[in-house]
UniProtKB/TrEMBL annotation:
CDD domains: YjgF_YER057c_UK114_like_1. It holds the Pfam family YjgF_endoribonc. It comes from the Bacteria. Transmembrane segments: none annotated. InterPro entries: Endoribo_LPSP/chorism_mut-like, RutC-like_sf. This is RidA family protein. SUPFAM superfamilies: YjgF-like. It comes from Acetobacter thailandicus. Residues 6-143 form the Endoribonuclease L-PSP/chorismate mutase-like domain.
Length: 154
């Protein structure tokens, strides 16, 4: 049975990408004491958006769940860049999800499970986290989902 986050990623056939670089005046992550905060990550796959558009419009819940999953892979890639070793993660403290959607869309929680489920698969019980998920009128590059995270690092 796999015991480290890296072994769990391998079991899931996930290879972490090179972390995305900021496109404006901010940094990808900040560590203050034992807390690591990762800036919002889009669902980039091989440098391109996995999907574009809004929920309640052209993007299905199933596609958005997968977009949240890819966003979380990018969050984890930033954590790896910050720590050098994912085993340093003592706890996924909080995830924040932004869902680009029409005003009528209300299934935000199901979409964000794409990220939350992956956090638990990779970090085990330490991956269980607090969470906020909100609908927004738009996201950068017309992405349907953006995920940010806060981690306790040892």
């Amino acid at each position: 049975m796999s015991t480290t986050p890296e072994e769990r990623l391998a079991d899931l056939h996930i290879t972490l990408p090179v972390p995305a670089t900021p496109v404006a005046n901010y940094v990808s992550y900040v560590q203050s004491g034992s807390l690591l905060v990762v800036s919002g990550q889009l669902p980039l796959v091989n440098g391109k958006l996995f999907a574009t558009g809004k929920l309640g419009g052209a993007v299905s819940v199933e596609t958005a769940v997968e977009a949240a999953y890819h966003s979380m892979i990018n969050v984890i890639a930033q954590v790896k860049a910050a720590t050098g070793d994912l085993s340093r993660v003592k706890r996924v403290v909080r995830l924040g999800g932004f869902i680009a959607c029409t005003p009528e869309f209300t299934n935000h929680a199901a979409v964000m499970n794409g990220a939350s489920d992956l956090a638990v698969k990779v970090f085990g019980d330490a991956g269980r986290h607090a969470r906020s998920t909100v609908g927004v009128p738009s996201l950068p590059l017309d992405a349907p989902v953006e995920v940010e995270g806060m981690f306790e690092i040892g």
